[in-house]
Amino acid sequence: LEQYPPSVYQVGLLAEAGLRVAVVDTWHPEFKQIHFQGLVQRIHAGPHTLNYKERPLPRLTRFRYAWTFKRTIRRTRREFHPKVLIAYDDRACPMVGRIMQGKNRPRIISHFHELPQYRPGEGMGAWHSNRYCPGFARCSDLVIFPDAHRAEIFRGQAGLARPPAVVMNCPRRLADLPANTLAIRLNAAGLATCRVVFFRGWLGPQRGL
After folding, report:
1. What is the mean pLDDT of residues 120-145?
2. pLDDT at 49 (0 to 100)
């Protein structure tokens, strides 16, 4: 959860609205756990691998972790009987799986931050998730994307009957702004009059400014 700001905002808003929220995720000792106001129960379904700096796990270990994660989601659903179940991004879709129609069926929300895509070499799990999520989205009660452009692309790819809802990924408003340390550093570097571009997101080999 700590690695996905849109989910962090979502959990916070739901809990502060008085709803009970259970989060199933993975965990890494380097993560600084976020504490929410309200009723939020964290359920760690297994360890997390920082792919950008840690060696990939053996295939059998990855399969075992994925199976444990899937079983944890199913067990949590049976124990809590949620009214709404949110699957975040394509990797979560096969973990939730198909839920049969019925009187006690929870409402299903597919919340995507990125367009689902598979890159060669990402492994069978990523390939399966990419193939699975369009059908999962078609069976969902609501599909969410952060912008209209990606929403329309995915609608065509998945064959959705109606367009996804657009919910922007915006940082939440703060009651008190933190100290402006950027201005001090810009002044020290002689860049006080320069324009500043603020990028909030992940920087890596395939994403940057």
Report:
1. 86
2. 83
CA-to-CA separations, 170 to 6, 29, 129, 157, 160, in angstroms, rounded: 8, 27, 26, 26, 25
What pTM, to 2 d.p., does this model score? Answer: 0.80
Alpha-helical regions (H) of the chain: 5-16, 59-80, 92-96, 124-138, 148-158, 181-188
Give the burial string for 172-193 (b: 16+ CB within 10 Å, else e).
eeeeeeeeeeeeeeeeeeeeee
| Contacts (Cβ under 8 Å, ≥6 apart) of 209 | 197, 199, 203
**Chain centroid offset of residue 74 CA:** 18
- Cross-strand partners of 112: none
Cβ within 8 Å of residue 199, ≥6 positions away: 209
Residue 100 CA to its chain's centroid (Å): 24
Summarised one tens digit per residue, pLDDT across range 50-68 is 877 888 888 888 889 888 9
Beta strand 84-88 pairing with 40-47: unpaired
Structure token pair of residue 27: 């965990």
Q: In what order do the strands lie in the sheet containing 142-145?
A: 84-88, 107-111, 142-145, 165-166
CA 38 to chain CA mean position, Å: 20
pLDDT digits (tens, 9 = 90+) for 144-183: 999 999 999 999 999 999 999 999 887 788 888 888 888 8
CA distance 162 to 142: 9
